[in-house]
Every structure is written in structure tokens, then in C-alpha cells.
Amino acid sequence: MSTDLIAFLKARLDDGWRTATFLRHGLPDAPSEQTFSYDFLLADVAAKRKIIDLHAPVVLRPGAEHGLVDRDRVVCRSCEPERGGLGDAWPCQTLRLLALPWADHPDFKATWRPQ
Ligand SMILES: [Zn+2]
Asked: I need a labelling partner for 98 at 20 to 30 A (CA). Which of 17, 26, 108, 109 fits?
């Protein structure tokens, strides 16, 4: 199971968190727009971390409960798997779109681009 997209996204969000902290403490007399930007960045990072958790991978195993699969299949825990598809359905479009702003990052994989 490939969970490196989650690690990648969390590392980029950690970068954003450190940047926001630097902006706040590096500019103690910053105008109100800076404070707003700091609060926004922290709220943005917190929300994206929750989105990542909601779209974690799960494995569907063959059996009566998932009669349509004949082998283990990796899908998103929140997104509806494609009906009739036999391939893995993770990472989902939501995670791919979250990662897209970092498409130029050296650790970004071309296979993560939205489909
Ligand atoms: Zn999803």
C-alpha cells in the first residue's frame, strides 16, 4: 500500500506551519493583515490535516461483504470506489488535488497528478 502521498502532504503542511510560525514571531509588530495571514495559514493547515485523515487508504478484501472484488483492493475510506473497477482507487482525487500545489516539489510523484 502506498502511503507516501500522505507523508508527502503532511511534510508540506509542516512546512506551512513552520512558515506561519516564523512570520508571526519574526515580525512581532506586523500589521493586522499579517496576523490574519498567520491565523489563516494555521487554520488552513489544520483543516487540510483533517481532510488527509478522512481520505486515508483502506484495504477491501474479497468476501461476501465486498462481493465485487476478487483480490485485495486499496480504496479511500471516504470516497466511493469506482463501480465495477478492479484497480486500486487510492490515492483519491481529493488527496491528489491537495498535493497539486506542490507539483514542482522534488518529492512529488507524477503518478499523484489528478486524473
Ligand atoms: Zn478520498
From this structure: 26
